[in-house]
From TrEMBL:
The keyword Transmembrane helix applies. It comes from Sousa chinensis (Indo-pacific humpbacked dolphin). It is found in: Mitochondrion outer membrane. This is FUN14 domain-containing protein 1. Pfam families: FUN14 (PF04930). Its main location: mitochondrion.
Length: 147
């Protein structure tokens, strides 16, 4: 086959220049783009989000295991001591105190709802403005939990 002659002209599009002028995230997430979007490349954002997410997930996993071990072990030792006669537990009083604590937590939670909603709105806005680094963080966090 013969190639087309050089007489045919093609328009060359410089996509890097187009991307600088027409930020796709402005159309998707609004005109206020966060600082991370403009400072670093997409690959750098994904790596930064992934590494920080993995560290957070790994620490969350280790601390969670430690807390679960401490609470479970403490409860187990308390049960052993109770059945062996070393400790007498007034379970009615424990139940009463737990119910009292539940009521207090519910009261405080209802008062704190506006602050919590404000934090959720700010976090949502951050995720919208920095979608690439946020998605890298979530992926890294899940990998950190799995490792």
């Amino acid at each position: 086959e013969e190639y087309e002659s050089d007489d045919d002209s093609y328009e060359v599009l410089d996509l890097t220049e187009y991307a600088r002028r027409h930020h796709w995230w402005n159309r998707v997430f609004g005109h206020s783009s966060g600082p991370m979007v403009e400072k670093y490349s997409v690959a750098t954002q994904i790596v930064m989000g992934g590494v920080s997410g993995w560290c957070a997930g790994f620490l969350f996993q280790k601390v969670g295991k430690l807390a679960a071990t401490a609470v479970g072990g403490g409860f187990l030792l308390l049960q052993i001591a109770s059945h062996s006669g070393y400790v007498q537990v007034d379970w009615k009083r424990v139940e009463k105190d737990v119910n009292k604590a539940k009521r207090q937590i519910k009261k405080r939670a209802n008062k704190a709802a506006p602050e919590i909603n404000n934090i959720i709105e700010e976090a949502t806005e951050f995720v919208k403005q920095n979608i690439v680094i946020s998605s890298g963080f979530v992926g890294g966090f899940l990998l950190g939990l799995a490792s």
